[in-house]
Amino acid sequence: MDDLDRQILLCLKENARMTASAIGDAIGLSVSAVSERIRRMEKSGIIRGYRVATDPERMGQDVCAFICVSLEHSRHNEAFMQAVREHEKIAECQYVTGDFDFLVKVLTDSMRSLERVLSDVRDMGGVSFTRTLVVLKAVKEDGPSTE
Questions:
Q1: Third-level CATH fold of 63-134
Q2: pLDDT tens track for 4-34
Q3: How far apart are CA 85 and CA 44, in angstroms?
């Protein structure tokens, strides 16, 4: 991956629907060169896919929270991860190091709904302890740079 690939990724990160022609104009490459580089990055797994970014507030998901979860034992990991994958209000789940085993991101419409999700998480097999952090304001959500 070189600087031109990084520039292409920055363009796509800004607008995943940007045409190869527009990207080429922005970074000084031909359409065919941009298209070939994008195909190569897709084939190698650098580009894993394209997603729609939504505004949680406009979708009625005004409450964002992170639930730190500790499990009794690692033998519960697989069942916990499967339960998380199936829960519609859980937006993300990370397996982490430190004082907790998992960090769960929840997007929901109200504190009452968050309370229900928290109850669901606590009822998942093997959960021994949770700590919930409610987000007051997102400072940065667009992910890492391509540098």
A1: Alpha-Beta Plaits (3.30.70)
A2: 999 999 999 888 999 999 999 999 999 999 9
A3: 26
Q: What are phi and psi of 142, to 5 degrees?
A: -85, 5
- Rounded to two decimals, the pTM is 0.75
CA dihedral 43, 48, 50, 51 (to 10 degrees): 170
- Are 93 and 124 a contacting pair, CB within 8 Å? no
Domain ranges within the chain, ordered by starting residue: 3-44, 63-134
| Residue bearing tokens 């400072």 | 139
Structure-block tokens of residue 93 = 């789940």
CB atoms within 10 A of CB 64: 20
CATH architecture of the domain 3-44 equals Orthogonal Bundle (1.10)
Res. 119 pLDDT band, cuts 50 70 90? very high
Tally of CA atoms within 13 A in the half-sphere of 29 that contains its CB: 19
CA dist 79 → 41, 82, 93, 101, 120 (Å): 34, 5, 13, 13, 14
Tell me how far apart the alpha carbons of residues 145 and 79 are, in angstroms, rounded to a whole number.
Answer: 33
Spell out the residues 6+ positions from residue 74 whose beta carbon is closer than 8 angstroms to its own: 101
